Amino acid sequence: MLEIPGYEGGPLVEGSAYLDEPLFWPVHLGSCLRGEDAQRAAFGADWDAAMDLYRALSAEHEWPVFNVPLRSGHTIYVVYRNFDGDQGVDYLIHHPAWPAAETLAVDDGHFMGPGTAWPELLSAARQSTPAGMGDAHARLLLLFPTLGDARLPDDAAAPLTAALAALTLIEEPAEVAGMLLENQGQWEPAYWRLADAVWINDGGHSYRNPCNTFALPEERLREISNALTSLTP
Q: Are 70 and 124 in contact (CB under 8 A)?
C-alpha cells in the first residue's frame, strides 16, 4: 500500500492508469467546470460514462494517488480522498527531508486554496524529471485545480487548450480552456506577489498567504516557491 508521510487517510493506490482515459480529465477538472454550458462543452454525450468514472475514482476502498515530481526533489501528490461523507481531492507537497507532507490546496466543499500562481503552475507542468509523470500536458491538467491567479497573461489559454486537445475528446478545447480560466478553483482568484523572493498571495483560504493564521511556516513557503518555479533554495 502506498504511503505519504504524515498523511492520514485510507487505502492509497497508484492512479496512473486513469491518465490514459480521456474522460478522466474533465472529471478531474469538474469543480472548475461550473454551469450547464461548461459541463455540456466538456462532457458532451459522455455524461453517464463520466459519472461511472467519477464513482470509480471516489470508491472508499481505493484512494487513487497521482505523483508529480519536481526537479528540486519535491513531489506533489494528488490524492482522491474518499472518506464516506468527506470526499475531495487533496494536493500535497513533500520532500524526503521533511517529516510530513504539507497541503497546497484542497478541492472539496470546504475548499482551501489557491495553491499556485499561473507562472508556478506552468513551471511545474514543464519540469521534466528522470522518473515519474513526465508529460507536460498531463501535469498541467492534473495540477490546474490548485490555480487561483487574478493576473493571468493574455496567452494563458494556449497551453491549456493544447493540453485539452492532446488528452481529451473535447470538441472545442479552446472554448473549455476559456471556461476553466474564467472559473479557476473554487476560491476567488488571488493576487500574488514576490516578498523577499517568495511567492505569496492574499487569498483568505490559502496556506500561502502569510496573513492567515493557518499559513505554512516561512521556511516552507520559501522552499515551495523555489520548488514550483524550479529555483535552487
A: yes
Comparing C-alpha atoms, which of 135, 124, 92 is closest to residue 199?
A: 124
Mean pLDDT value of segment 61-67: 95
Higher pLDDT, 107 or 39: 107
Q: Are 60 and 10 in contact (CB under 8 A)?
A: yes
Grid look-up 509523470 returns 133
**Which cell numbers in the block locate residue 144?**
490546474
Question: What is the DSSP track for 113-133?
Answer: B--B-HHHHHHHHH---SSS-
Mean pLDDT throughout 13-24? Answer: 94
pLDDT of the residue at 41? 81
Cβ pair 4, 79 in contact under 8 A: yes
* Residue with cell string 487513487: 64
- In single-letter form, the type of residue at position 42 comes to A
Largest CA distance in the chain: 50
Cα–Cα distance for residue pair 166/212, rounded to 1 Å: 38
197 CB-contact burial (10 Å; exposed 0-12 / middle 13-18 / buried 19+): exposed
pLDDT band at 233 (very low <50, low <70, confident <90, very high): very low
Q: In the predicted model, is pLDDT for residue 158 greater than 90? A: yes
Helices (H), 64-145: 118-126, 136-143
**123, 230 Cβ separation under 8 angstroms:** yes
